[in-house]
Write a structure and sequence with these properties.
The structure holds two protein chains of two kinds.
Chain A: E1 3-5, E2 12-14, E3 19-23, H1 35-43, E4 51-57, E5 65-71, E6 77-82, H2 90-99
Antiparallel strand pairs in A: 1-2, 3-4, 4-5, 5-6
Chain B: E1 12-14, E2 18-21, E3 26-31, H1 37-47, E4 60-62, E5 67-72, E6 75-80, H2 85-96, E7 102-105, E8 110-116, H3 120-125, E9 142-147, E10 150-158, E11 161-167, H4 171-181
Antiparallel strand pairs in B: 1-2, 2-8, 3-6, 3-7, 4-5, 5-6, 8-11, 9-10, 10-11
Helix pairs in contact in B: 1-2
Chain lengths: 109, 191
């Protein structure tokens, strides 16, 4: 069972209060992009054993979307942050580097 | 002319705590930039609460003519007497005329239930994934959460009384849930 802190209302929300939204920080390829880029944007997802960045929605609370960085194997949560960003905040990356030396996830490491 | 009636027709149940329909309650949803002056003055018009007394995150505050509850960073729920909803809304619309904000009467879309008694915390804690211990949850706090399978907002009016707001369409389900959780032989005695 996951407990994530919603960065908007500040509560520690139980997983059942949240709705999952898949992978975070997707780079969008829309009209005019190449077939391969569009295919990857649409279908190719990370499925790591370890550090992962995800989107979650505080569906039964304030209703806002946010991002979470966590480990899929230990369920350790490195941090949550508002969704209006294209990359994880420095503090979160620093925490992940400390806990998981040598990790990488897409272009982040 | 149709008579407004509350969703559960004032049903009540006595168990570990008294569960009852609170009857008709005026409710206005306000969405907008809560820090904007016009939005604050609309809240003042509705509840009598002046700027600094208006609720911050997870707070519910009562004023002279109503209460204001923080729902999300851009949403507030205002409670007022049912019969005054129209006039309160009109006063708010006047204040909100020039800003991007929305105030809507949602009184008839909701049901308000009360759970009262020394075991009220326990009854609510059986249904919601919240820390409802006295150290963590006190009168003045409001939480939107999940009550078994439905969304609900709950707060305490005093140390032994909870108020719960749910959608009217699930009023019956919510009442039955609370009845089960308040069954006289289902005490846990945790708090």
């Amino acid at each position: 069972m996951l407990i994530l802190r919603c960065p908007y209302c500040g509560v520690d929300a139980d997983e059942t209060e949240l709705a999952p939204g898949g992978e975070a920080h997707l780079k969008r390829f829309g009209p005019g992009s190449g077939d391969d880029d569009f295919h990857d944007y649409l279908f190719t997802r990370e499925n790591p054993r370890g550090v992962h960045f995800e989107r979650w929605r505080h569906a039964h609370g304030c209703g806002k979307w946010f991002h979470a960085a966590r480990a899929t194997d230990t369920l350790q949560v490195f941090g949550t942050y508002p969704a209006q960003t294209s990359e994880p905040p420095k503090e979160v990356l620093a925490l992940i580097r400390a806990a998981r030396p040598g990790w990488s996830w897409r272009e982040f490491a | 002319m149709s008579e407004p009636i509350s969703a559960l027709k004032m049903a009540g149940f006595d168990g570990l705590a008294r569960v009852e329909d609170c009857g008709l309650q005026g409710m206005i949803t306000l969405r907008g930039d809560l820090s904007a002056r016009a939005v604050k003055s609309a809240v003042t018009a509705a509840t009598g609460l002046t700027g600094p007394k208006q609720p911050g995150p997870l707070q519910i505050v009562s004023g002279k003519s109503g209460s204001a509850a923080w729902m999300s960073p851009d949403e507030m729920l205002l409670l007022c007497p049912y019969g005054e909803t129209g006039s309160v809304l009109a006063a708010m619309q006047e204040k909100l005329a020039k800003v991007h904000a929305l105030a809507v009467d949602v009184s008839d879309a909701r049901v308000q239930l009360q759970v009262a008694g020394p075991s009220a915390r326990e009854v609510m804690a059986k249904l919601c994934p919240l820390d409802l211990s006295p150290e963590n949850f006190q009168p003045g706090t409001i939480r939107r959460t999940r009550m078994a399978q439905i969304p609900a907002a709950l707060w305490m009016v005093d140390e032994a009384t909870f108020r719960v707001i749910c959608f009217r369409s699930v009023a019956d389900y919510a009442f039955n849930l609370l009845k089960t959780a308040a069954h006289p032989e289902s005490g846990v005695g945790y708090f």
